[in-house]
Amino acid sequence: MAARQPGNNSERQRPAASFPTIAVAGYVVATLVSVLITVWVLKLWRADLGIPFKYSDDGLLTSSAVKGIIDNGWLFHNSYLGAPFGQSLLDYPSADNLHVLAIKFLTLFSGNWALVMNLFFLATFPLTTLTSLFVLRRMEISYPEALLGSLLFTFIPYHLLHGEQHLFLAALYIVPLSCLAILRICSDRPPLIRSEAGRERYDFRSLRTLGFIIVALLTASAGIYYAVFACFLLVVSGIYVAFDRKSLKRLVTAGILAAIIFFGLIVNLSPSIIHIYRDGKNQAVAVRDPVDAELLGTTITQLVLPVTGHRIGFLADLKQKYLDGAALVHESHTFANENDWTPLGLIGSAGFLFLLGWLVFARGRYDGRDPAFYPLLDTLSVLNISALLLAVIGGFGLLIAMLFSPEIRAYNRIGVYISFFAILTVVLVLGRLRRKYIRTHVGQRLFFVVLLLLLAGGIFDQTDKSMVPDYNEIRKAYASDAAFVNKIEAVMPAQAMVFQLPYAPFPENPTIANMPDYHHLTAYLHSHDIRWSYGAMKGRNGDLWLRKVANQPPPEFVKEIVENGFRGVYINRNGYAPGVAVELETAMEDILKEKPVVNDDGSLLFFDLTGYARGLEQEQGASSPS
Description:
Layout: H1 5-42, H2 58-72, E1 77-78, E2 87-88, H3 97-106, H4 113-138, H5 143-154, H6 157-162, H7 175-184, E3 193-196, E4 199-202, H8 207-220, H9 224-244, H10 248-279, H11 291-295, H12 300-304, H13 313-328, H14 345-361, H15 374-391, H16 396-403, H17 415-437, H18 441-462, H19 471-491, E5 497-501, H20 521-526, E6 531-532, H21 541-550, H22 554-563, E7 566-572, H23 578-592, E8 597-598, E9 604-608, H24 610-623
Parallel strand pairs: 5-6, 5-7
Antiparallel strand pairs: 1-2, 3-4, 7-9, 8-9
Helix pairs in contact: 1-4, 1-5, 2-4, 4-5, 4-7, 5-17, 5-18, 7-8, 7-9, 8-10, 9-10, 9-15, 14-15, 14-17, 15-17
């Protein structure tokens, strides 16, 4: 018997030795499945990765930010916009340095801004799957259910609908890690604490503690909204466990993690804070009204109804009926806007409603059975209702905006946390059912088939055709703008400045005539070394000068911009009433004695000022004393 012992030990060690390999294989499979679903949902075989998926509205703003990072090294300043002063984004606070750093990493492999942006966006899908899977496995959920939950969360409508127009909001990969910290506050293994002889003691030296601190710092660097919501939910979790378990240490721990996120957020925002302290607050930028928290809140109806344009006809009709009714009363408080991007899907809605029911009928009834199930559902039910009360129209979000600050206004965005809690609930219940009722190998196989059907049905339900970019139309518009800007660059000297008309305040400006907001940015996106007038931060001196000059009569306008170094005028006809555009074009032709360069559809004009500038220099030289 003794001779067989080494062999027996070896056999016992094989599962342990192979465990890392099995775990890695599980994550590799999750990544591959996530990539395949991404390809199918976005129909990527139709796409050109060198052309953006969103080429209008906020998508142009995002594109200019990514190109600005490539051209200038970071996000805050762009010397190619807002000429002659340059663009500064410091009036518009941003705490997305983690995402900017990821984009900087991608620029090591390509200088094509569209490719970099597309790769970053596409990477958010497998990254979200991996972090979700990691968290669910840490919650002791079996791999099949965890894989289902991670994939369903990755492809929630919120992710796809924000897309590249709100690129950093679509980067959800830190949210599951934040949820892990929030949920651990109420668990048997809280962050920053270890148990010794039945007593809880603070532990600030372990690798586990370091891990939670890193998660807090990453949360602080992944966007203002997700950081603020994480702090809110940490505090809720701490207060809940302080009353439920009479544990003040847990509340302090939640406060410490929230404080780390808060101070990390301050560090991320410090360039803007220093700028505002030095130059004063810009009263024209990011002006928010408390009512915005009402308009950009959400409703239970919006959470549980299907996505707009659902693949199934009667579900699409049901959602459209709600939208039509909401449009009739939009001047009060139910108009659908960004909050239309918060549906949980059928599976997520089931988890959400289950948590509401659990809160009312089952919370606090834990009798010692299944400690990985009942207490966690208690916590999830409290977090779910707390997030809902903050985000719902007429909820605490509006009260906070009225009493404290309206700067955080889009409370519907906490829906991403509600989605995670709801999907986690579903996989918890599925795991509980499997453990309790399925005993045979045949039953296990059938259960896995059910999971596959739930995955397929969930992805089918949470996505629709409207989430697929119109690649052909984008390609046409992109190629047309590229050809037009190439003509401009062919005649302009290096680092030439071009004045763009009509004058358009930046950022967040309504449509001017038929010219959508941010459309002037298309010129910058296709240029290499031209400096464009659009993009100066409104309310600052540069913007005030540009507005003053643009409102002058054409002769004075041309003379002043040439004297200030501009060598071209770019005109978007859609920014004027038809008669006004013709008058301006005629006046420019009379002044410059030449015809403009015109784009394919006739909407864009370019006047070369270099000849006029030479004549003006000669005229001024002849009139000056020798």
